[in-house]
């Protein structure tokens, strides 16, 4: 088997183990070899190998067999050591990361299962997601439909699915009679194709037109799939005409989804479009603190040293899923070896995640990208010119440097031609002020951010 084949099989495992487990436990596996029915993977720590072996090796074996690989056993090794001996495996297992899911609706509503953990109570609100949260809350109250659809978008692992599930849970509690259907755009397509194949398209149409609330996750998936788009468009219109609430999520704004028909884009823009911004330090810390509270009952007696959460919030900036995965791994490991969670333990146990998050953006990269976008010279970023066509992009670069790098204002000032930190602060504030009214500026910032963090 080649690395490439493993890559493909690995992707398929998302469906079996869920996205969170996938990112935490499956993605870090490095394929070594497959010989005489034994497939070997390299893992970052022996604990890691042990955990995957206990929880996921059956899935890995089954998926490899489905892909035509003859696999009887799955083994893990750290560098050239193999998985730890039996006694360690018998140690107390932390609870599984994924709790039982429950169906999202009544029997005849074939939605995707809802994750019981994804509620409003467990959603930590901070500046980057407060608008999305408020809009989701409004929809979840189930009052008169004021904006349709609610379109939530943002990068990977920032809480779109969490908010959608929270809306569904809340609606079901407040108004159990409502027919709430939650599914991914991919499932929408499969159901549509199945209905076509089985000549039950009328049933399909009837079902989707009879819901009170339709929620479709990851709508970018239907881009480029012509007949699915067509059907989605008609479903959408039929529901809007009946004044039924629609909630949609995607990884980018409607206008930025390539190969999505213009008429769909414009419909999606008709309601309220809100962005989940990349997390900031405070939000990450809040999420970690909340998780630790949850873990306290599960891992009784486990002590976490001061500064560990701050360290993680500072260093793991990629996305919340990775952050949660890191904490889960840390607790599982500490409980297994019966040790306090110290900074050293975190550094050892999470070395691979920390390394991956280390790819830090530099101020120079930000200056270059912003200069390119506004078609000015890179030297003007650090130069003295004060005309607005140059000063504004410079302030945008200052703002992004503050947002996207851990540098202090004086450090940023030094990289902008030795400017004083108060000048940087002024620039950052100016942009924040303009953001409240200037939608073009907001669009530019979003695009730049995405490109820089790509
Ligand atoms: N503000 C938050 N408070 C608490 N947990 C959060 C928050 N944001 C994200 N999470 C958690 O992070 C994980 C990833 O979130 P979610 O699955 O909702 O991301 P997503 O935006 O749908 O990502 P994708 O684009 O990959 O589908 C989940 O376990 C979710 O509970």
Automatic annotation (TrEMBL):
InterPro entries: AAA+_ATPase (IPR003593), Chromosome_initiator_DnaA (IPR001957), Chromosome_initiator_DnaA-like (IPR020591), Chromosome_initiator_DnaA_CS (IPR018312), DnaA_C (IPR013159), DnaA_dom (IPR013317), DnaA_N_dom (IPR024633), DnaA_N_sf (IPR038454). Residues 1-91 are annotated as: Domain I, interacts with DnaA modulators. CDD domains: AAA, Bac_DnaA_C. Residues 88-103 have a biased composition (Low complexity). It is found in: Cytoplasm. The keyword Kinase does not apply. Its main location: cytoplasm. ATP binds at residues 157, 159-161. Pfam families: Bac_DnaA, Bac_DnaA_C, DnaA_N. Oligomerizes as a right-handed, spiral filament on DNA at oriC. Domain I is involved in oligomerization and binding regulators, domain II is flexibile and of varying length in different bacteria, domain III forms the AAA+ region, while domain IV binds dsDNA. Plays an essential role in the initiation and regulation of chromosomal replication. ATP-DnaA binds to the origin of replication (oriC) to initiate formation of the DNA replication initiation complex once per cell cycle. Binds the DnaA box (a 9 base pair repeat at the origin) and separates the double-stranded (ds)DNA. Forms a right-handed helical filament on oriC DNA; dsDNA binds to the exterior of the filament while single-stranded (ss)DNA is stabiized in the filament's interior. Belongs to the DnaA family. This is Chromosomal replication initiator protein DnaA. It comes from Paragemmobacter amnigenus. The gene is dnaA.
């Amino acid at each position: 088997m080649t690395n490439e084949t493993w890559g493909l099989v690995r992707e398929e495992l998302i469906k079996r183990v869920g996205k969170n487990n996938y990112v935490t436990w499956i993605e870090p596996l490095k394929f070594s070899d497959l010989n005489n029915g034994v497939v070997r993977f390299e893992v970052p720590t022996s604990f890691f190998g042990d955990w995957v072996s206990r929880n996921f090796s059956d899935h890995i074996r089954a998926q490899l067999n489905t892909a035509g690989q003859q696999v009887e056993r799955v083994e893990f090794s750290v560098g050239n050591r193999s998985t730890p001996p039996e006694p360690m495996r018998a140690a107390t297992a932390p609870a599984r990361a994924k709790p039982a899911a429950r169906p999202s609706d009544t029997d005849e509503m074939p939605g995707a299962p809802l994750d019981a953990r994804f509620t409003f109570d467990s959603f930590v609100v901070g500046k980057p997601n407060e608008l999305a949260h408020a809009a989701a809350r409004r929809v979840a109250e189930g009052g008169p439909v004021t904006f349709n659809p609610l379109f939530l978008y943002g990068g990977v692992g920032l809480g779109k699915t969490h908010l959608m599930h929270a809306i569904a849970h809340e609606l079901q509690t407040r108004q159990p009679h409502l027919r709430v259907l939650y599914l991914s755009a991919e499932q929408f397509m499969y159901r549509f194709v199945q209905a076509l194949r089985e000549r039950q398209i009328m049933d399909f149409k009837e079902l989707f037109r009879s819901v009170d609330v339709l929620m479709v996750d990851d709508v970018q998936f239907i881009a480029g799939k012509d007949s699915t788009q067509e059907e989605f468009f008609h479903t959408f219109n039929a529901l809007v005409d009946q004044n039924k609430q629609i909630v949609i999520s995607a990884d980018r704004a409607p206008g930025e989804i390539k190969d999505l028909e213009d008429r769909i884009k414009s419909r999606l823009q008709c309601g309220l479009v809100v962005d989940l911004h990349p997390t900031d330090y405070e939000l990450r810390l809040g999420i970690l603190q909340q998780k630790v509270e949850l873990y306290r009952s599960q891992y009784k007696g486990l002590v976490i040293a001061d500064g560990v959460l701050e360290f993680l919030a500072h260093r793991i900036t990629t996305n919340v899923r990775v952050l949660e995965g890191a904490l889960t791994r840390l607790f599982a490991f500490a409980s297994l070896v019966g040790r306090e969670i110290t900074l050293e333990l975190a550094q050892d146990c999470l070395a691979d995640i920390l390394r991956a998050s280390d790819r830090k953006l530099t101020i120079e990269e930000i200056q270059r990208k912003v200069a390119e976008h506004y078609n000015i010279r890179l030297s003007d970023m650090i130069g003295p010119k004060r005309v607005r066509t140059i000063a504004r992009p410079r302030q945008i670069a200052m703002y992004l440097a503050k947002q996207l790098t851990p540098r202090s204002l004086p450090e940023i000032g030094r990289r902008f031609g030795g400017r004083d930190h108060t000048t940087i602060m002024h620039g950052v504030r100016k942009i924040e002020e303009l953001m409240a009214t200037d939608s073009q500026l907001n669009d530019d910032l979003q695009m730049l951010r995405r490109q820089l963090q790509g």
